[in-house]
Amino acid sequence: MKRIILIISCLLAFMVARADGLRMPGFFGNNMVLQQKTDANIWGWADAGATVKVTVSWSKARYKAVAGQDGFWKVAVATPAASFEPQTVTVASGKENISLENLLIGEVWLCSGQSNMEMPMGGWRFQPIENGGEDMRDARHYPGLRMVMIKKATSETPLEDASGEWWTTSGGHIAEFSATAFYFGRQLSEDLGVPVGLVVPCWGGTMIECWMDRESLIKGGIKAEDVDKDIRENKDSTPWHTSTLMYNAMIYPLRHYTIDGFTWYQGCSNVGAIYTQDYAQLQAAMVTKWRELFGRGDLPFYYVQIAPHPYSAEGDSGLAARLRDRQKAAATLVPNCAMIGTCDLVYEFEKGIIHPRKKAEVGERLAYLALENWYGFKGFGSAFPDMIKATFSGPNAIVYLSNCGGGIHSDMGWEFKGVPGFEVAGEDKVWYPATITGTDGNSIGCTAPEVPEPKYVRYLWHDFSIGHLWNSYRLPLLPFTSE
Q: Angle, to 10 degrees, between the axis of helix 319-330 and the axis of helix 279-294?
């Protein structure tokens, strides 16, 4: 009996170790981009104990690895400065070989989130991308911009592989590109003058919990039993709202890929959940884990504040305003993290549409953060005006602002007459619309006849409320409350 058990154990070990020959990750392929001026990881699987050799077209260096018992192998190849010259990586093991063609060396970013990150350049039914047609026609002028949309998948346990095809801007897939990621990458490529590769794992309707591992969810304040219950009860019925499933299948398998930063557009599905869990703490825990997972230190994490949208059919709930406030707070909890505002990027007629068409500005604003804060561009004007403090004198509330640049401006006239969004309240916290009384460029005064002695002031504190105030860099004043 012992002999039979030993034989079975050996057979099982052999089956686990065997990798069925040489292969590479499912999202590797022709047209991919490798991070410049670093040791970029190349990995895959082969038969256990097999020697794997890797050669690259840009140098005479030769790399070698031996596949482990699980078949896994990995090498780190030294990459040169960015270039638009096509390169090749060849991987060989015994008589097998794989050649990756038309590779570029440049900047690589991971762009994740829910449907507003997923929304393609071709738009969705009744939901186009503004100027999308023109920009898709012009995309061929950006041959260095490459994108891989990671195939949607879920798993209760971390997976080792993910699928996706690298697309070029002239390969017939431009309408399928994530619009937010496209505009982000286009702006980076233009200003840096280098190729840009975008790895895009996203899934419409997902909550932030989907993109986090169990340990981080607990660190973010969710009880372990609640995480386990969520997975057990919802994994099959509502996977897009279930903890850990996308992290395991769409983030964890990418961890060896050498990237230079993250962008994130998510939050809509967490509106209303903030009373049971603090979104800021969750996002901070997620960012910390992702950085640890990719192993390149405090990589930049730039993200999008959710746009105006009526989240309740019963009227204004105020829940979106609170979520936006927690999103803003998240940037203060971890280093090298910043948020862009979108309160001005919605038309009035889009009130019932959760996917605003102005995606170029979203991607470009994310790029401005990267260009100034990560790549060292000076005076680029990427910071958004926001409230520093509020003071009250008689009937007047005065809001002092940061990041005003050349002063606050409006598209509703230089006297700010009729500019909506401000409200004041007294000790009773009953809010009334306020009229702007003036500005010195770095502060704004407002008043409401119903509140003779205001104690609180707020701006755009509603689910759907469009901003009409900007600094000189055309970045909008962020929603705030002094309460």
A: 40
